[in-house]
Amino acid sequence: MLSLPDLGVTTLTEVADAVRHITSVVSLPVIVDIDTGFGETVNVARTVRDMEAAGAAAVHVEDQIMPKRCGHLAGKQLVNVAEMVKKIITAKESSQMVIIARTDARGVEGFDSAIERARAYVRAGAEIIFPEALESKDEFAEFARKIRAPLLANMTEFGKTPYMTASEFELLGYRIVIFPLTAFRAMLFAVRQTLRELKRSGTQKTMLGKMMSRDELYRLIDYYSYADLDKQVMSVSRKLLKR
Q1: What is the Cα–Cα distance from 133 to 138, expressed in whole angstroms?
Q2: In this structure, is residue 70 part of a structural domain?
Q3: Could you tell me the pTM of the whole model?
Q4: Which domain covers residue 127, as residue numbers?
Q5: What is the per-residue pLDDT across 213-230, written as a single tens digit (0 to 9) for each?
Q6: Interacting residues of 175 by C-beta distance below 8 A, sequence separation 6+
């Protein structure tokens, strides 16, 4: 939404504002990626309070150091376990949200380290564990066997994780599967195709079948309730002015 790379360059205020926009129009629980918590332990306390005030149901905090990297890219570095444990404890003591602990250890220190870190994060109070960038179905299965906590899987595109269905993850023991950029990537692909067609032909007529209709859009953004309210107010206003 901000057209910025996944390098931890967004601010707490920007993310909290985005969360407020989302939670004001959806009824589903919202999970927020707070990267490394926007700083050290004391920053995590403010971060989770702001996320809770913005309406988030859960946050996930990761064990990278800043500047962080996308979990499926090289060049990541990790904080020590004690530092991450302090962040989890602080997050738990500072809010009533569900705290999800993400570990990027698989691509930095190896699979066994990811297991050991996850166990420490569970002991610190994390309710859900998020093992980032596991590289095979067997790794996901082994992780689930060894970690006694609800698990979250990230099924992103073009990354380290092989494509698996939500049902496959469920059978392995994962309670939540996120598809963080799937719709966004598809949207950008469609926008590019549309602009190319406009440039080529000078008309959008050939693209109409791939668009949401005016009525569908209006229903999505609740346009008609605003229009109805305006009519009601106008009716009441006219009656009052006639008196």
Answers
A1: 13
A2: yes
A3: 0.90
A4: 12-180
A5: 999 999 999 999 988 888
A6: 128, 150, 151, 152
